[in-house]
User: Fold these one by one.
Assistant:
Number 1:
Amino acid sequence: MAEPEATDARLAQLEADNARLRRLLDETGTPDGLRHGLRDTLAMLRAVLRLSAETAETVDGYATHLEGRLDAIARVRVAADTFGEVSLHTLISDELMVHLIREGEHATLEGPSVRLRPKAAQLMALAVHELCSNAVEHGAFGLSKGGVDVTWAVAGDGTSAPGDLTLVWKETGGTGVTPPSRRGFGMQVLTEMLSYELRATVALAFVPDGLRCTVDCPLIPRIGRLVEDERADEGAEPP
């Protein structure tokens, strides 16, 4: 990546800003729950900034992609601060809309009402953001007939006992999609961060008309839960 000195300076500045914010949180008597959530977010921002710098090929590419990644995290953080949890359906549809992909036109979304805890939601939003960006730059969204079907299901009832959440991202209408020649940021999010943080297993298939991505993770309390009526549950406090 070009201009490593500038990147190192940005990283050093972010580390200093984060240290000052952590001290401020400790000194002002911030509630434990809010402090813990902000610490998680700060840790994720540091990881995203550093990994973005390590995988970017140009400074312009670094800046452009970093902005989108930070925006994805910020949108979920706002929702989590408001409701305590984040709707999986809303998370995906919002990210698609940022890329001008409208549900019902070039995208279909189908699955039960699942609400994710803040940290899990931020990771999932980052993964969906990378899938969307890849589809715009290299896959189905770059073509007029391209689209995506996103489905998810929960094994078991997901309420009285933990089940497994399975999410499938299936692009259609692409042409000549092939595996990437290098492991960029998106691949590392999907194959490493989700595995480490959510105990997820991820399967990727680069078929000619688009990418297929399947994410399986346990729907345990620290990750999320299945709800009977998402609209009725929107303002409820998490268990």
Number 2:
Amino acid sequence: MGRVEGKVAFITGAARGQGRSHAIRLAEEGADIIAVDLCEDIASIGYPLATPEDLDETAKYVEKTGRRTVAVTADVRDAAQLKSALDQGIAEFGKLDVVVAQAGVAGMKGEPQIDAWCDVINTNLVGTINAIQVALPYLREGASIIATGSTAALMDVAKVDNPGADLGGVAYMTSKRALSGYVYDLATHLAPRGIRANVVHPTNCNTDMLQSAPMYRSFRPDLEKPTRADAEPAFSVQQAMRIPYVEPSDVSNMVLFLASEESRYVTGMQMRVDGGGYLKWYDYHV
């Protein structure tokens, strides 16, 4: 216990799924939490997003650990909203040590397709950059920035079989790949200041995003209305290990490591929590 004792963490997408899991795990190890989420649906995203009640529940889980929380509804696509939310947290806690830019959406099969492209890029890429950049003025030596990528960002997809068929789905991969490059360059130039920045790349993760009708259709395009039972066997195609997905807690353990002093010299890394998914795409090379 106490691996991040006394630290303050700013977490986007904290109302449920991976974001909630990260908030609870960091709180269990001693961090106070500034928790942010949109808490409303986006029309082009084909599954329900978190609610205000979900964010309240995250705050209650954090407080049960004995740590404090400031929970604020804000849209990561709007830097001004994020800055206001972060300022409320810093007014309460007085500092900032950890940024977990977790908020993200999957636009697979989203309609209208142009809206789906824009909403995914603006949430996953622009929203991640917004979260990091509103935090940068408050970060000091020893701080840690952690962005959520995806194994999709690492896949070698050189051939486009059907251009324009699923703009929202393509935007997911594009956004995660672009944010990975952004964090890599940021890490390089923050290193002399003693501030670290890394990306965590989960494979399929057992959250509402994965367990959704659009994702089921992506994994089982041969069926008109696939169910979870139809899609779940196909989830395993992503991993070398014989698993359909990882749990949010598996990703949270990596986030905790990167937030803690245990990783004080780890920066600019693309940390995979992927059940060996990357191994299916690339040969070993130095």
Number 3:
Amino acid sequence: MINISNVGVKQTQFLQKAYKQKKLAHSYLFVDSDEERALNTAYWLACLFNCTGENKPDGTCQNCKQILSGNHPDVLLVQSDGKQTLGIDQIRPLKEELVKSPVESSRRFFFIKEAQKLTLSAANGLLNLLEEPVAPVVTILITNNSDQILPTIRSRTQIINFDNGKKRNGKTEILLENGFTQSEINELGNLEKWDQEIKYFYQEMLEHNSLALISAHKLSENAKLVSEQRYILIKLKLLAEQDLNDPLKLNLAAQMLKNLIEVDKMRLSNVNLRNSLDYLALRWK
């Protein structure tokens, strides 16, 4: 449910100033651990442009009601609908809308929720949209983790951070907190493939799937760099810590963390990654 009373205060002040000065950018990246607040702010901006009331946006005029109910022809939302990714098939219609002029407004608004779920092909498909668009349009990408957005996408947007440094939830910040140097993080590069393979390994262990041993071998063989080897173990720890918040997985997560402490001890004794991951897989066989 869109609620334009639950918005970023400083962010709306910044956007309102840009609106009054006619300096609104054509593309933004809203970074917020609370993605609903960021989405509400995006809708607030669309209402600001279209509101017919005195105190814009009032949220009660006919235009605002249309926008907030998702029925305005010039305001389009793309979201994953619970799927793991946002694919090119979901972005293609947006690109087709790009060439169309506004129907009832002076500007169109495209919102992409959970932009961190964009596949590589979908993200690349967005690049032309984020350049100087043909029709008057404002595109707003919403994410809870800017590190998962392609650098080429970030460079084409004006980034507005809602957390104001209060919550360090970006992947870079998490790795720094876990002892990685910036040069090691740069060395790791794109972690999307690693994240997927590590998550599969983790899930296979929790399911007592015999494929976990095969995944352990694959991970250890592909991790040539020390930074990659460290990342695998840190990511397993982060997945387990996340599952501590799930009552159904609490005991499993606690046991996994206990096993990972043993792996840390093994690594300090110069046990290689292959044997360390084998130990984990066999413990959960």
